[in-house]
Structures
1.
Amino acid sequence: MPHGAPLELTGVTVTYGPYDAVRDLDLRANAGEVLCVLGPSGCGKSTLLRAVAGLEPSRTGTIRLDDRQLDGLRPDQRDVGLMFQDHALFPHRTVADNVAFGPRMRGLDRRSVADRVDDALRLVDLTDLAGRRITELSGGEQQRVALARAVAPRPKLLMLDEPLGSLDRALQARLLDDLTRVFSELGTTVLHVTHDQQEALAVADRVAVMRAGRVEQLGSPDELWRGPRTAFVARFLGLEHVVRLTVRDGVADSPWGPLAVPGTRDGDHDVVLLPEALRVIDAGEPRRDDELAVTGRIVGRRFAGDHLRVTVDPGTGPTLTVPVWRGSVPEPGSDLELALDPQAARILEPETTTRSTR
Ligand code: ADP
């Protein structure tokens, strides 16, 4: 299998009528990197992939793959593979026939086509089903055929549009494992689009969080999780505690008491509490001097598999939700004591304006 090539988008704008679905976007994926584009529905993720694939023209900017400019080239000249959201398989043809489509379109001889089909089916563990028709497969198997079809031509860039979108949770988890294995075996550059933050954080080397046609933040899963730049990114990653606080003389006047947030500037700021900012403490358990003690009434408990999410109302300010791992969880209506660590609070940048039409 070939190694991936770097992909570079510079100042790319894609327009539908008066509306910019992708706006002046800069993005670079390094050779062999898995780059996830993460964002809410309608933010322009699919449009971005379609522009790179050559299915949508860009109005401004350049798209380069391995120092080759793609703008103006037909989709089949671009050396990219695209796995569509709806699979777009030929339903009455066999698995092998579907996977052979790309290599055949490239004009390869029968022998080379057969080799590539074998390789791709082995990669997704579907060799035994090569002769089946698509209509005789489960949803998860169809998804794997779609993946095999996208990789069979051995593209320098593999792009996936919500590849797990239509599957149930258990299958999603299995296919997520398959995808990470396939990505690392292939070594190709991957542009993977999803609205699901867990999926993005699980597969990506780096994640580009997209909002209204632009990249709002780009970083490794760990960088994003530890340092979301804006309230939008923080909320989109699933960080629940974003509050607006006034900082004076380096101390934020929070509803739960004075918080010495690191790196702070005086003024009004959005502040996010990272998950490790809050922990449950037993009555009388010591806490650090700079931690705040917050006592609140339990107003909600939500089962989350290996832990419970317990929501506490401290009486002033917003409620706080913490994971509780221990066997005995206090009943709703009783009090819970928390320690709030200001070191795990982050000042966020002001929100930028969104949406534009020309
Ligand atoms: P995402 O993949 O993030 O859900 P899309 O790229 O599909 O977003 O769409 C971005 C925006 O462009 C949306 O507001 C959508 O309604 C609009 N859009 C997408 N395709 C078309 C089209 N063919 N014609 C007009 N508007 C479109």
Note: The longest strand covers residues 292-303.
2.
Amino acid sequence: MASKKQKAPAGKVAKSVNTPAETHQTASESSLALTTNQGLPISDNQNSITAGVRGPVLLEDFILREKITHFDHERIPERVVHARGSGAHGFFQPYESAADITMAGFLQDPRKKTEVFVRFSTVAGGAGSIDLPRDVRGFAVKFYTDEGNFDLVGNNIPVFFIQDAMKFPDVVHAVKMEPDRGFPQAASAHATFWDFISLTPESMHMIMWAMSDRAIPRSYRMMEGFGVHTFRFIHATGESKFVKFHWRPLLGTAAVVWDEAMKISGADPDFHRRDLWEAIDKGDFPEWELGVQVFDEATAATLDFDVLDPTKLIPEEVIPLRMLGKMILNRNPDNHFAETEQVAFCPSHIVPGIGFSDDPLLQGRLFSYLDTQLIRLGGPNFHQIPVNAPRCPMRNFQRDGLHQMSVPKGRVAYEPNSLAPSAPRECPMHGFRTPPVETTGERLRKRSETFADHYSQARQFFRSMTPPEQNHIASALAFELAKVEFKGIRRKMLGHLLHIEQSLHDTVADALGMAGEAEAITPAVEPRDLPPSPALSIIAKNPGILKGRKVGILVTDGFDAGLLPKLQAALIKEKATVAIIAPKIGGASGDDGALLEADFALSGGPSVLFDSVFILASAEGMKPLLGEAAAVNWVRDAFAHLKVIGHVPAAQPLLLEASVVPDAGVVPVSDKKSLAAYVKAARNGRLWEREPSLRSIG
Ligand code: HDD
């Protein structure tokens, strides 16, 4: 029973504690009327209809039911792999015509811009997982060409774990959280992953990459991308050649260090998503060059591995890249779900001028992606979702199905027909043609002998790394294998490492405390010594730029207000981003008395978020920081993560407190000359020579 007090006079609406008029802006002021999905204007979006103001909710409330029902159905199945991702729009433009190697329309004319949508992703974690686990990154590009969509669905690593799609569900089940316990999330450091890998010698080359710095990228903007498989380029004459696709970031390739990755994951789980968003948002558009390695069957036959084997790469020193053009990402999505979540990439989305090879992994993918979109996006019309729709005309006689959004007209929905002479027809002249490659052989389930060398390229990769990069691989293996509670798996992995490189095995065995315990493994093919490929190293290709990097400046009250603008100007000239960190978010007052607002409070802006740091403290302002863990760790971490640290002389006590040992990367700044010295040092990125004094194996 409603109390007397709660009863509204007849014909009037009961006044509740939360009426729209009291606490919210209503449509009568400035905005448009809120409506139901049927367009019915809604008068009250805060309260459901109840029987009496404190009584039960009425089933009649169709507005409540519509709202809750829609909410209940908001989620779609997340991607079975690559669930966590970030997208961006942009365009691709060729440098010159590539008509000599392919008839693909979007590669013919240097004036032609082709719209693209890109999605970067991690592989193992769920949609809400951290951005910086040790993992492969997806690098998927949808080109909306005039001849249909071309999806180049690649990774930031040029090889893969397995050679045959038959094994894909197994490798994915092994790396994902273990099925009984539901953990670990977004991590390969667990028993099932290494169990599978220890039994899969073909994974060893990929494991070298996955344990390298490539698996902890600094930014999506600083990642290379690879089509991985061998594809085909088809010439207008119908002749075809093999092709491998490469993306090269103009900001250079860069990684963080592992201890930093773990701390970033706590400080900012959205580190990569935020970085990409913010860069595009402020007009700092990331760019990549698209390069190709093109070669014919005769050249393929001279290589000492099979180009159909996706666990192998062709060193650039053997077949150099030809740069075809540039991709620029210049627009953030308007809606994460509608675009980044619903974008549907399929390696089978191909255009005239490009074809597949017989790589068995690629062949399996040609089936899998379309299949997965049907369950994820709920039916066969997912190509009508705006982010998936081709920008060129799309016409055929496919009809109906769930979520049909268009209204095809006419009585003819078949072909051939004579009733609709202007309806679409097949086009032998310009239509897609599969290159006529001769194929013979018995029907059989058998891996080709030409795929059997599992260690030579793993060794080649390891030997192509600089010493710090080799140390990182060793320490990543030691870290991961130490999380495997079954000794037998660790012993097997040590056995594989022996075939890759004795010194790598020795370092990892020693770090695990398992020297002499490797299990003897007989390789299918004896590994060979291949010449190193310096192009595979990230450090060797360090571009030495601050562009696109972020510098954190820690200020305290009384900071040198004359130096700050000079420092900021010098960094902005380098096209770096500058962030101000102060003990309090309200900011700090300079020695001129003016207040400088902070971008981060010290507790929320640890140095792991920046590529280089600068301490702009006053002697007095420094004092409280000496007993402040967040401040000491800010400096200690910057040093441990090999960053260049600039500082004013007054910051010295904090450096001492953080056990910073002066070296070429610790730069005192007091004048124009020393400021220039700081910028020069910071340009070089990390100080790798500092690392051995801090960590035994990287
Ligand atoms: Fe895959 C997603 C890349 C092998 C099956 N894959 C997916 C994505 C990328 C790749 C970048 C995310 C696309 C996006 O952002 O939406 N996958 C690769 C690469 C591979 C590879 C470079 C080896 C060279 N994948 C592979 C195999 C299979 C799949 C062998 C199955 C036989 N991949 C899928 C999938 C996904 C997927 C299950 C999950 C969501 C999706 O497709 O759209 O179908």
Note: The chain has three domains: 17-26+33-384, 452-539, 544-693.
